[in-house]
Amino acid sequence: MKAFSGAAMMEGLMLQAEPSAYIQSAYQSEAHLSAEVGLQEEGGANKKSAYCKDLLMRGGEELSFEELRAERYNQRKQREMEEKLKRLTEEEEKLSQELEEKKRLLELRRSQPELPHRASSQSSDSGEAPAAASFHIYDESQSAAARPPGNPEPSTDELPDDVFLHPGERGLCLKIQHPRRPDHQGATSDDTSPPTFSQKPDSKTRKKLSPIQETSVIASQEGLSTETCSPLEENPEEQEEMDHTASPAAAAVDPCDPDVRRRLLDLSDVTSSPDLHSELRPLPAVEEHNCVQLGGEVYFIDSRVVDGGSFSIFKGAVDDNNVLLKVDSCSVPWDFHQFTRLKKNSSAADSLPLISCFLFLDGCITVYTTPPDHMFTGLTDCDPSELSVGYKAISLLQLVSQLHSCRLLHAALHPSLLTYCHTGIPMSDRVLPVDWSSSVDLDLQQDVTSVQQLPAAQTYISLGLLEPTSPPQLVDLVGVAETVHLLLTNRKMVPVKDACGWTAEQFSGDEFCHMYTRMWSTFFQSLLNAEGQSSLSVLSELKEQLSSLYH
Asked: What are phi and psi of 478, to 5 degrees?
């Protein structure tokens, strides 16, 4: 009994001690956790980040999420540019191969002798020599054919000879003297004459040729022998008639034709310039608010300032400089040639923009870059005050004087085709052309001697403002008057003729008493009545008068 009671008592003591042990164990665990937390708070080395820092670390510096996102964007853009450059390189190689293949085919074609297309028929029962055999003339550009042998006597307007003239051979100006008929005085049945070559094209053939074809014909005839006798020499009346017919055609040759300009530039050294670059690829797309890469430089395009149909002018920037880009569908670098000529003959070439030209397979891009601390502004975008217009007029007179001094004509002066290159100091600012489409180089084009040969002058001639035989420089004087009138009044100039000659309608009459208004009236009268005077003297005198007012 005592034993049982002792056992029960021991079990009860154990049951009472067990909760105390659990409580003590819980306290120990809590203390252990508190100690661990304390260690973490004290050392800080055991902290674990909520994100992976390795992706943000660059060297010893940790990037932000925005910087990491920008880095990935730049890497993607770099890969895209490399892929685009690779495609362009492959396209350039392909075009180079095609160009070499075409050159090879062209050389092969030139190396093959060209056989003359000639057809003749000889009667089997005729006893005449082969040289006197009868033959027909066919012109494939006409439906009518000459009569065959055996037909009745031909009319006086037809030849009893036959030669096949293919369209490509019309420019050869081949004149074949046919055998004389027995019924002609002094002729016999065996009278034969060798074919002779005319040094001048036949009048009928010349009427059918375009001006450019005619230029090529005249150039090709220089290789003919001058010792051969022309049948026209036997008939002075026909010679005089042909010369009379030829003169209007020669005057109709357009000096602004791209083919004419291409041949002229072949005679100059423009292709040797280090600022002229050729690229064997199509003309790149140039659009507003975009960029274009030219010669290793990236040009940012801001806006289109001129849309000329076959060309456009864009305003943009490269590095910290303003640029103007003329994108032309013609691959003849005429603008580059003309501006280079102007800059080479300028005493202040350092203040003129830099120019470069990029030739492509189907066009060219001419780039004007401002000198340091300069900027480009449109003439009509500046201050419209009379003082500002006076400074621009002085700069425009100076520009045209420089053009005429080195025998250049612009022939299409208009505010939209001119730019104002300035620094903020009025007397040092320059007015410059950014389009030379209608311009003429009188050193290369010495045949241009009157305004009737300039397409831009035809309106002035029809109004009677210019005589057809007036010197070509007068076109630029009228252009100066039109440009300044538009800047002064924001209206197109209307020329009228009064007792003092031609003047602008808004400045005609003698009622002006203000000295500035009188000056502008004299300005327009001097420019519009310069017949018989030197353009340089007129421009110099007006520049001095304006400078004395707007100093």
From this structure: -65, -35
